[in-house]
């Protein structure tokens, strides 16, 4: 499904032409769930790595969400970059969401998910 973004001008023209009010979902309203989800991942990254999406401390965990390499590879992270810390924040979140769905929650981040009260 493709979502179309309507500008105020587009909506105004549609209303003027049709002569009736038009109800449309604004881009901000449509993006709200993703923004909320991203905020959770940002909180988790602050706990895991101090919010450093490029973290590579030599401990075998990489990026803002401290992926180990095998988890990153198993969930397709290499389509973005060989190592998580070299992928963008958005790319790391995309893989984290896949891990979350595959494992049914935030269990891949046990200490921080408990600390933050995440299921």
UniProtKB/TrEMBL annotation:
<feature type="domain" description="Resuscitation-promoting factor core lysozyme-like">
    <location>
        <begin position="38"/>
        <end position="112"/>
    </location>
</feature>
<keyword id="KW-0378">Hydrolase</keyword>
<keyword id="KW-0732">Signal</keyword>
<dbReference type="InterPro" id="IPR010618">
    <property type="entry name" value="RPF"/>
</dbReference>
<feature type="signal peptide">
    <location>
        <begin position="1"/>
        <end position="23"/>
    </location>
</feature>
<comment type="similarity">
    <text>Belongs to the transglycosylase family. Rpf subfamily.</text>
</comment>
<dbReference type="GO" id="GO:0016787">
    <property type="term" value="F:hydrolase activity"/>
</dbReference>
<protein>
    <recommendedName>
        <fullName>Resuscitation-promoting factor core lysozyme-like domain-containing protein</fullName>
    </recommendedName>
</protein>
<dbReference type="Pfam" id="PF06737">
    <property type="entry name" value="Transglycosylas"/>
</dbReference>
<dbReference type="InterPro" id="IPR023346">
    <property type="entry name" value="Lysozyme-like_dom_sf"/>
</dbReference>
């Amino acid at each position: 499904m493709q979502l179309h973004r309507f500008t105020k001008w587009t909506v105004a023209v549609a209303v003027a032409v049709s002569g009736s009010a038009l109800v449309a979902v604004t881009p901000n309203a449509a993006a709200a769930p993703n923004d909320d989800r991203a905020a959770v991942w940002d909180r988790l990254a602050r706990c895991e790595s101090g919010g450093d999406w490029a973290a590579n401390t030599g401990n075998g965990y990489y990026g803002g969400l401290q992926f180990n390499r095998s988890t990153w590879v198993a969930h397709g992270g290499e389509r973005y970059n060989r190592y998580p810390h070299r992928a963008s924040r958005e790319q790391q979140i995309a893989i984290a969401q896949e891990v979350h769905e595959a494992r049914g929650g935030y269990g891949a981040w046990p200490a921080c998910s408990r600390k933050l009260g995440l299921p």
